[in-house]
Amino acid sequence: MADLPRILIVDDSRVVRVSLIQRLKGHYEVREECDGEAAWQSLVVDHSIRAVISDLQMPKLNGFELLERVRGSKLRRLQQLPFIFISGEEAEEERGRARTLGISDFITKGTGSAEVLTRLNNLLALNSAQDSLLADRENLVQDAASGLFTRKYLELQAAQALSHAARHGLEVSVMVIGFDGFEGLRQRLGTPVAEELGNRFSRLLAGKIRQEDSLGHFCPGQFSVVSPGTAPAFCVTFAERVREAVQAARLSVDGQTVALTVSIGMASVPADRVGSAGALLDLAGERMQAAMLAGGNRTESGGILPASRAMSVQQALELLADGRRSQVLPHLPALAERLLPLMKLMNQELGLSLPVAEIEFFLSERKSINN
Asked: Which residues contact 195 (CB under 8 A, 6 or more apart)?
């Protein structure tokens, strides 16, 4: 009997309870209560109860009230618990109310044993299948430690994005971002600290991506971003911003400063001819590995160049302070043009003799040649 599923029978009639117990004997273990309040207490404390068969008219808490409390419970096992009403001469209005409250099924007091068992077996099988699907989905959607999407879920997201892109002529880009020397980092700092650094990075990255993008794990110390509708050049631009931000960051761990760099692989459709979402992610992962083998701290995009973007004066000053003069040089003309109003004001208010006219002429001539 201990191995049989347990059913709660709730009815203020001892005769009805005995009758139902006889019909379920040998197939289910039965717990019985004579009023709704006692039934509710049993449901809260007894986690082994797999289904409820309840009368409508009972003292203390009637069937409707018991059902409403069960479906409104904060306990998920009760929210989805199979719940059957023993029906008599109820009006259609009462049946409608029961359906609204979430009743699973009705049986009449004269229903035969075979029918009762069939109804119960079907409801329990359905409930078990729903629990399995929910558990599978939770395992698929989130990593328990970081709360990020799993790689399998990212593949599903990428597949949906590819399907939508094919119908509407759009592009889909994916990135795989990995910490350079992650294994060495883990050995030096310990696995918990290395993983916490990864979690901190993922939280930072999550705040930078769009709402329609999906961020998840790829491998230990590696993350992936699926970006529907994003042109590859803009994806590479974003990848470079991430790479530069990590390089410039200095994280403090247990009192010591840790310098980190990342390598990034990017792949996109239709630029890359791949046959599936999994292949698209794998290609981005292979390009990330190639970037690491080439020395790390770089982005490998299969030849796609970043979209041109303006550099702010503040960014230029930060790069110069960090010794990265070469990254500022391509932006000097645009920076000079942006600073012209400031130089004019300095000449006017501070009595300086900055060659503003010559700079304006030089920039104008340069623009004409380039056009």
From this structure: 145, 186
